[in-house]
Amino acid sequence: MARLDPPRETARLRLRPFAEDDLAPLAELLADPTVNRYLYTGPRSLEETRDLLTQRLARSSDDAEPRMNVAVTLREGDVLVGDFALWWDTEHRQGEFGGSLLPAHQGHGYATEVYGALLEVAFDELDLHRVEGRCDARNVASIRSLERAGLVREAHFVENEFVKGEWTSEVVLALRAETWRGAR
C-alpha cells in the first residue's frame, strides 16, 4: 500500500496516514447515519471502528496492497475531519477514490481539496491513466466535489444496485491523466 509519507498538505488540510489517536473522531464519523446514508455500510460501533483502525494501521506497513487510506485533518490542530481512500489497478493503470467528512466540515470545499491532492498522487506518483469516483446519484454534494476537482460524468446507471433494502442509481465521474495535466 502506498503511504502519504511525508503527509501532503493543501491550502487548509493535511492528508496523512491514520494514527491511533484518530479513533475518537473516526468513530464519530463512521457512526453518523447522515455520513453513511449513501454508503454500502451502515453506522459502525466504537468496537467496529477500533477493529477497522487496527486493520488500517497494520496495512500501512504493507506496500504491496494497491490502496491508500487517508486521514484528513485541518492543518491547524491535526484533528481528523475526514476519511478518504484511493484504490488502483497497476496493470490497467486505473484508480478510484472516495471518502467522507464529518458533517460539521461538509460544505467548505474540503472534499475537492482532498481529491485534488489524491489526483496528484494518482497521476504524478502512481502513473495512473484514469481515476474515477462513483456516487449514489442522490448524493449531489459528492458529485459536485468530484466535478470541482475536474472529473466529468461518464455514466448514470439507473437502479443498478440494491443497497440497504432499496434500488439505487449510480453516477460515475472520471478524469484521465492527459486531461488533468492539460488543465494544470
Spell out the helices and strands N to C: EEHHHEEEHEHEEH
Level of helix content?
25-40%
**What's the mean pLDDT score?**
93
- What is the CA-based Rg, rounded? 16 Å
List keywords for this structure.
single chain; 184 residues; alpha+beta; 6 helices; 8 strands; 34% strand; globular
Descriptive overview:
The protein is of the alpha+beta class and 184 residues long. The chain is built from six helices and eight strands, in the order ββαααβββαβαββα. The protein has an eight-stranded mixed beta sheet, sandwiched between helices. A hairpin with a 3-residue loop joins strand 1 (8-9) and strand 2 (13-16). The radius of gyration is 16 Å and the shape is globular. The relative contact order is 0.15. The model has no long low-confidence stretch (mean pLDDT 93).
Write the layout of secondary structure elements.
Elements (H helix, E strand, L loop, with lengths): L7 E2 L3 E4 L6 H9 L1 H4 L9 H14 L7 E8 L5 E10 L4 E8 L8 H16 L4 E7 L3 H9 L3 E12 L2 E11 H7 L1
Parallel strand pairs: 5-6
Antiparallel strand pairs: 1-2, 2-3, 3-4, 4-5, 6-8, 7-8
Task: Give a short overview.
Helices cover 32% and strands 34% of the residues.
